[in-house]
Amino acid sequence: MKTAPTLSLRNQLINILDNEDGRDNGWYSYTNIVIIILSILTLVAELRFTSTYKEYFEYFTIFEIFALIFFSIDFCARIILYTRRSKYLVSFYGIIDLLTVGIGIISLVFPILAGSSVLRVFRVFRFARLLKLRHGTSVFKGISGIALPYVISAMAFKLAVLAIEVLPWYPEVSGISIIVSVIGFILAILLGTKLNIANVRLHSVEDSICRIVGALKILDKYDTVKSELIAWSKEFEVSLINVANRRRAAEEMRIRTDKLLITLHSHSISGPNVATFARDVSYVLHRSNAKPNKTYEDFLKYVIFAYTIVVIILVPNFIGVVASGLITYVLVGIYLLIDDLDSAFQSEEGTSFFVADITPLTFYNQTTGK
Question: Shortest CA distance to 342 belongs to which of 278, 280, 276, 294?
Fold first, then answer.
């Protein structure tokens, strides 16, 4: 029995910080979420509910100090533990962490600057730390689990925007509900069309596998080529479930298929069954490595991002928080669903949720030749 590799203390701490393998059962990720959202709610209370904030000022201050200590320890731990520190410091998340800690320290050391609009705006960017959680593959599972960090980030961003909506320089926009609705409808059509195409493509791969098995059941009645067909079928199954070297396995399988077709021809075995067999095998091998159109994928990604930002900024008050979370969950969830369906077989990372069912081929290999 294989056992999980033993990691050094340093690597274990890095895995916890980066939400890699879930050995801490996600407690650090959940702690991050709670502290970041509470710190943003503190900013909302400071700007939107000033009387409450003043009444419980000491408690808010204690929490801010606690949050700053937590973020500082996280930041220092990454600098100490990471081997490529400079790359981290100039990365998007490194800059966000630096701003989070730096602005917090400035606010505490110079209380007179704490109420500055500039510092308040920078405090808003704490929400971006939540996007780190999307990289984890073990704490947040399933489509909803992967979308969760985006949903929380969108809602946190809206809470942050809610805090600065009261500032005099924040623009007031009205009369855009129809435009937002129309764009949302168009986006729904784009996503729905893509989802339908991806779903049909996945089913077509399964249909092709069924036709391949049907052709094998007819062709293996020829005793002269039966052993060749059985050996080929088993190799074909292995090539489809080979995650690490699928492209190479597909290339080798194409060569193996050509040799099989030559063997069939040498025994005067041809006709519609062989032609359909060859076509379906080529199609399945092609789909096993095919990638979605990058231009279309990027377009969808940018449109979803832009639309979500518009909703976050323009839908006012606390209804905007709910709308931001719901819209992000729906749009990001559908995008992830489509992205997963675009790959008919398990990804190299082994994280696919929807894969083509090759049960007919597996059953054929298990029962034939016994």
Answer: 294
Residue 222 DSSP one-character state: S
Cα end-to-end span (Å), the chain: 29
Encode burial over 273-285: b for 16+ CB neighbours within 10 A, e otherwise.
Answer: bbeebbebbebbb
215 and 369 Cβ atoms separated by less than 8 Å: no
Task: Name which of 325, 319, 310 is nearest 130 in CA terms.
Answer: 325
Choice among 65-69, 150-154, 198-202, 346-350 with the minimum mean pLDDT: 346-350
Amino acid of residue 90: V
Full residue range of the structural domain in which residue 57 is found:
9-170
Decide if 4 is inside a domain: no
Provide the sign of the torsion angle of the four alpha carbons 313, 92, 75, 149, taken in this order: positive
Indicate if the pLDDT at residue 155 is higher than 90: no
Same domain, 332 and 320: yes
Q: What is the pLDDT of residues 78-114, one digit of tens each?
A: 888 888 888 888 887 788 888 888 877 877 777 665 5
Spatial contact of 140 and 329, defined as CB atoms under 8 Å apart = no
Q: Where are the beta strands (DSSP E) in 314-367?
A: none
Residues 159, 38, single domain; the answer is yes
Per-residue pLDDT reduced to its tens digit, 181-228: 788 888 888 888 877 887 888 888 889 999 999 999 998 888 888 889
Q: Which of 155, 170, 185 is the last residue of a domain?
A: 170
